[in-house]
Design a protein that fits this description.
By secondary structure, the protein is an alpha+beta fold. It folds into 2 domains: 52-220 and 309-423, 3-Layer(aba) Sandwich (Rossmann fold), CATH 3.40.50.1820; 432-656, Jelly Rolls, CATH 2.60.120.260. The chain contains 13 helices and 25 strands. The protein has a 10-stranded mixed β-sheet with strand order 1-2-4-3-5-6-9-10-13-14, sandwiched between helices. Strands 15, 16, 17, 19, 22, 24 and 25 form a 7-stranded antiparallel β-sheet that branches. Strand 1 (64-72) and strand 2 (78-86) form a beta hairpin. Helix 1 (3-12) packs antiparallel against helix 2. It starts with a helix and ends with a strand. InterPro entries: AB_hydrolase_fold, CocE/Ser_esterase, Galactose-bd-like_sf, Xaa-Pro-like_dom, Xaa-Pro_dipept_C. Pfam families: Peptidase_S15, PepX_C. Residues 392-652 form the Xaa-Pro dipeptidyl-peptidase C-terminal domain. One of its GO terms (molecular function) is dipeptidyl-peptidase activity.
Length: 657
Amino acid sequence: MNSLSYLILKTTAFSFSGSDFHLIKKHNSLRLAFLLIFLFSATADLFAQRGKVNEDSLYIREHYNKIEKMIPMRDGVKLFTAIYIPKDISASKKYPILLNRTPYSSAPYGETMFKTVLGPSMNFARDGYIVVYQDVRGKYMSEGDFEAYRPFIREKKSKTDIDESSDTFDTIDWLIKNIQDNNGKVGSWGISAPGYYATMTAVDAHPALKVASPQAPVTDWYMGDDRHHNGAFFLMGTFAFISSYGAPRPVPTPKGTPAFSNYGTPDSYEFYKNLGPLKNVNEKIFKHENRIWNQLMEHEVYDEFWQSRTPVPHLKNIKPAVMVVGGWFDQEDLYGPLKTYQGIENNKPKSPNLLVMGPWIHGGWARGTGESLGNIRFGSKTSAFYQSEIELPYFNHFLKDKQDPKLPKAFIFETGSNEWKKYDQWPPKNSVEKKLYLHANGKLSFEPSGGNAATSFDEYTSDPAKPVPYTSEIRIIRGSDYMYEDQRFAATRPDVLVYESDVLKEDVAISGNVFADLFVSTTGTDADFVVKLIDVYPGDAPNDSPVNPSMKMGGFQLLIRGEVMRAKFRNSFSKPEAMTPNKVERVKFDMQDAAHRFKKGHKIMIQVQSSWFPLVDRNPQKFVNIYQATEADFQSAKHRIYTSGTSGSYVGVRVIE
């Protein structure tokens, strides 16, 4: 505690003995003291961050020159590229190149205008690198037409056969030949969409590319990144993002299109309910002028359009070393890093392929300290550790021939225990698949009900007119808080089923894939099923929230993993099938990976529901093309989750033994 915080506490925590009044006064004074301490600490942190930015900005200006070039591609299109070069570069002091290709702008533009942070972290700028930022084809100051996740062309027959791999190859080739005194080695990195472009640098890579780091890489906009999860449309994040990202850009410009802002309310639940069916977005707002939104609306199923845009089938013969990075609480792209790593690993690469997963939201490893998220503490500065002990040493080894940091195959932060784990494969060898069975009366255990048990089920009514909210907060932009939010707000609803284990007598640590295997029936012909895996804190858990000292952590329901499945895709994401009313059907789906320790004294909980609004669009519960559905298509339906015998529903996890 700093001296001012101590002074605040000392001068406010007073009382006089022998009086309830003074006890109350002391209690209120203490609350005020903690509030003042929190506000002071937050303010101090803000000023410290600003000071660090100013310090970093000054360092960049003092140690780097900046040039801007229009680099020609093989088809004649030129891409805007900003290049930061160390001032002390020379024939006797050569530097490697770091490349970041982005659709989000290489700003600031102008050779006298400098970024305030350079590279994956300022560690790289201080260590000495040539750092390159490039606007991808069709974005901001680059020429050409933009295509979101342009399909890869394996057999290129002419100079007009271009993709992100060829644009990267041409860029690296130009940089190596035209930036004097580079050392001939290139590394690439990027977060989110730039993470996808980093993935594509490694596909048919230029020989000079020695290391690539796709970080939270967008990998499949249909199966699990950003726009859809298991066929269900992620409404509010997509609408807000695509309103800018998909807007027309007739000519190169340093300015992007502002995102939609005319919500008229701070409440997303109200806005999207009033907006109505998905088709109203074009009719009322976009007017069919947003090309990417139009593409989304035209491809409801996993067709050739989507299949051609994922890089996973092309992650073969990857020659550069790779380090894939992701966050367990990533609100946008948890799917991407896991599938990219596994896609490379499945093809047995000769070069190193590493996976790093930490307790971060989207891009959290590159900003902030990583000490906490919301009410949850992680016990250390995880982001700083990653930047200095994992990321920089890995790049330096391959680009500067520095000592091999001998990193593990999988460097995984286990939440719950708040420990970094080192594994020689992912999932770990010592993890085994176990099933958390849903039982009658809201029970949950690793033991099945038995094959001779009478058929049992739990039933609830799902009404699209009253969908389950995805958060307890009033907010208009999705944010990331829902990924680690207390789930008690949902557990009390009649349209949310809750299954809870007994108090754990020993720790249960999971590491690896989580999946749901449900046996369900519905009175409708389609439905969504949302499954949440939750850590329930004991009633006497300490009130140690880093953001709210008065937050009662006893009984806190921490979301570990939540996922949605659109039931009409239960057998095929390309060929949807209607549900037969009142027929028991199996709905099995991927919930992504997790690494978490449910500690002794805690409980494990599963929640099941059929809406998650407006995070996910409402399912009409009628077998229709939801992107063309009308208000009349939406109907209330009763859903059953079966919990016994051969139709016993469960959630699969991998338990460390």
